[in-house]
Design brief:
By secondary structure, this protein is mainly beta. The chain has no helices and 7 strands. The strands form 2 sheets. Strands 1-2-5-4 form a 4-stranded antiparallel beta sheet, with no helix packed on it. A 3-stranded antiparallel beta sheet has the order 3-6-7, with no helix packed on it. It starts with 20 loop residues before the first strand and ends in a 28-residue tail after the last strand.
Length: about 160
């Protein structure tokens, strides 16, 4: 393989370990948590490759899946990206806050990361599938035949 092959970079001695997206999970109806296997650039100054820039992420609904409400997954947009408050994970976990709740379960969304950089300048990209968490509302079925609610009249004969 040689020194410059694999996850250590293209330079003769490499440029550090490659960082990749390792987990995508829904933690609320409108929040998706992304976890990387190493620190990524997160300055909040909108520099190139800043992980806090919502333009570096895309969320696409998976076609062909219908939620509990009977409708297919609707598109959502990323409103904000912030560092996740997770113990022992500094600069590796981020919460994507969406502009609205995801479609009801069991809808799926594909989250794609493209253009995020490591502090050393390495490129980070990847994608993952997240299952929507929203439970949705089951439609009410009205039963036209309801029993009597009069407790004085019971079934059987009256003497």
């Amino acid at each position: 393989m040689g020194y410059g092959s694999g996850p250590y970079g293209e330079a003769p001695w490499g440029d550090g370990l490659a960082v990749s997206l390792v987990s995508v999970e829904s933690i609320a109806e409108n929040v998706i948590r992304l976890t990387f296997d190493g620190p990524v650039l997160a300055t909040g100054l909108e520099v190139a490759g800043d992980a806090l820039d919502e333009r570096l992420y895309t969320i696409t609904p998976v076609d062909g899946i219908v939620g509990l409400d009977g409708a297919p997954a609707r598109p959502v947009l990323i409103a904000m990206v912030r560092l996740a408050e997770v113990a022992d994970v500094i600069g590796e976990a981020f919460d994507l806050t969406l502009d609205r709740a995801m479609s009801p379960w069991p809808c799926n969304y594909i989250v794609t990361v493209d253009g995020v950089m490591t502090p050393e300048g390495g490129s980070v990209s990847g994608s993952g599938v997240v299952l929507a968490q929203r439970k949705g509302v089951v439609p009410i079925v009205i039963d036209q035949t309801t029993g009597s609610r009069d407790i004085a009249i019971t079934s059987g004969s009256i003497a």
